[in-house]
């Protein structure tokens, strides 16, 4: 009988490798988003708001806010080394961010089972809550770090 892989042990054993895979995500790098840390089902990242990230009103474009939220969601749901993909997200925009501000996003796992996991994400702009995201991920069978199954 095949024994289940322990997510917490996978995270502890492969944390550095998982972090390195996730910090090198091409789109996040293109935007200048920096992954700060990952934990078991958690992640945080920051980006400094540049001119090209603004909308026609001079505030942070919603797509940039979504991008950093989606990035920490992806990092949190992949923090166990198991390939996970987003199924759905809901974003609530609450305040504007401005050029020169630092956007910081933090994701926290609310619950997970074998196939799905749920997250809450807060996006702050210089310590003001600008948006929240609720997100659902699908957990595939594939691991992107070495796995020894017994």
TrEMBL record:
Organism in which the protein naturally occurs: Alteribacillus iranensis
SUPFAM superfamilies to which the protein is assigned, alphabetical: Thioesterase/thiol ester dehydrase-isomerase (SSF54637)
Record InterPro entries: Acyl-CoA_thioesterase_PaaI, HotDog_dom_sf, PAAI_dom, Thioestr_dom
Keyword Lipid biosynthesis tagged: no
Record carries keyword Isomerase: no
Protein name, per record: Acyl-CoA thioesterase
GO MF annotations, alphabetized: acyl-CoA hydrolase activity
Keywords: Hydrolase
Domain Thioesterase: 57-129
Native organism taxonomy: Bacteria, Bacillati, Bacillota, Bacilli, Bacillales
Domain of life: Bacteria
């Amino acid at each position: 009988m095949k024994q289940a892989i322990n997510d917490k042990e996978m995270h502890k054993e492969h944390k550095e490798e998982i972090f390195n895979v996730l910090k090198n995500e091409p789109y996040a790098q293109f935007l200048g988003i920096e992954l700060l840390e990952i934990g078991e089902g958690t992640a945080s990242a920051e980006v400094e708001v540049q001119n090209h990230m603004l909308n026609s009103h001079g505030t942070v474009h919603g797509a940039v806010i979504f991008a950093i939220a989606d990035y920490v969601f992806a990092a949190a749901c992949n923090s166990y080394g198991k390939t996970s993909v987003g199924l759905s997200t809901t974003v609530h925009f609450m305040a504007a961010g401005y050029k020169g501000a630092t956007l910081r996003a933090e994701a926290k796992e609310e619950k997970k089972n074998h196939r799905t996991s749920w997250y809450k994400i807060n996006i702050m702009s210089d310590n003001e809550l600008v948006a929240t995201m609720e997100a659902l991920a699908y957990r595939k069978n594939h691991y992107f770090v070495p796995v020894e199954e017994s």
